[in-house]
């Protein structure tokens, strides 16, 4: 069953999914939340700088592919991974493969994964007390990419279906036939370890739990579990890739939370340091008036 014809279809599905996620997670009109996001982006300099930094780090993955294309081909560690974990992926795929399940999981991999990130940013912008979570998600995603990209450059691991086509099939093509031409530019064939689909989705789930928004925490946690299952079902990632992604997610979420607290603490201290001077200025004007 063909679910995606091109990236335009992916964009439309993503826009609809993000809108529904914001409504569900924030409990407010998604367009109201979008307005708050735009206001913060325009009038809050610190917010804007963090958001721009997040966007720039997401583009680094594309630059990594360009750099990799000019590098001398390094050793492919997929053979090593297969020798360690055996036929885990092929066994799982053959056990669960189903023509009705494939498009559902393709939707999770292509649409829900990126929609969760976009919606999380909007949801944490919705309430001022969640602002710490906004900074946390910015730092955590940046850490995910900054750690993963060196591995992609110097520790290449081919996708399972590409390395072992005799036993594993790339099921994504059943739902997205032109995936290799339309989507492949965003992800290299040997950019497997650690799995960013695992690390980012789990990072979002951990932060959602820390946010205290229970319905969003449940949604992100369940989605992360399904996405992890999907990377094996589609024949993309190795079990070791997933393990690396889990470790990276734990580190990124923890460090992201600590950095966000430091950011807000510095802002609070700066606010307190300005208060005495402002008070002195008022007293000086009062005395002058006398």
From TrEMBL:
Keywords: Membrane, Transmembrane, Transmembrane helix. It is a multi-pass membrane protein. It holds the Pfam family PAP2_3. Signal peptide: none annotated. It is found in: Membrane. Its main location: membrane. This is PAP2 superfamily protein. It comes from Paenibacillus taihuensis.
